[in-house]
Amino acid sequence: MEFSRDELSTRQRVARSILDHGPSTAAALADRLDLTPAAVRRHLDQLVDDGSVEAREPRILGARGRGRPAKVFALTTKGREGFDQAYDDLAVQALRFLAATGGDDALRAFAEQRVAFVEENFEASREAHPDLTPAQVLAQVFTDEGYAASVRDEPLQLCQQHCPVSHVAHEFPQLCEAETAAISRVLDRHVQRLATIAHGDGVCTTCIPPTPTPVSQSSTQKEQVTS
């Protein structure tokens, strides 16, 4: 079946909206893109058929209401490959070589260097956006680096709808670990990574507790528990 240029362009807009906003219902997509629900479902059906998108049951936070909640649509690995990726097979091969020659310490040093932008850019971004909360400033810092990040409330979460290194992080979790540690440091509290694109989730989600718990204190408490 052949599709017109306009149909392909609209389908790309649907996929891009899912990339930018995370797993979405057909109704949410129709509202964001100013399309009819029927048009969105037609494009979603085609994206599902070609393996770019998959339908999922939504995550329910708190009490579940009556009726069956609408399914959400999330990009698959194939769908994400349709967008620009900062790293490819060459990066994986390079990190494999680094692991073989330098070991875990070398991998962690590389991971920490790669996420140095978080701490380097946080203060400047906060000064440039004094009206934003620290979490929103952090989302802006990640967005500027291509993560399409946003903040959700209740509970407070940093959500990254796109990960430029997801293909590499799947094999090398040190990248995600360094990123989480950097988030903890700039917010001065212990955070918890709930989901990652690298491991098949639709969005990278980091839970930010409402009461600041200094990273150093959290580490001490963890050592006391494990000792």
Automatic annotation (TrEMBL):
Annotated CDD domains: HTH_ARSR (cd00090)
Pfam family, any one: HTH_20
Domain of life: Bacteria
Xref: InterPro entries: ArsR-like_HTH, Carb_Metab_HTH_regulators, WH-like_DNA-bd_sf, WH_DNA-bd_sf
Protein name: Helix-turn-helix domain-containing protein
Organism in which the protein naturally occurs: Nocardioides acrostichi
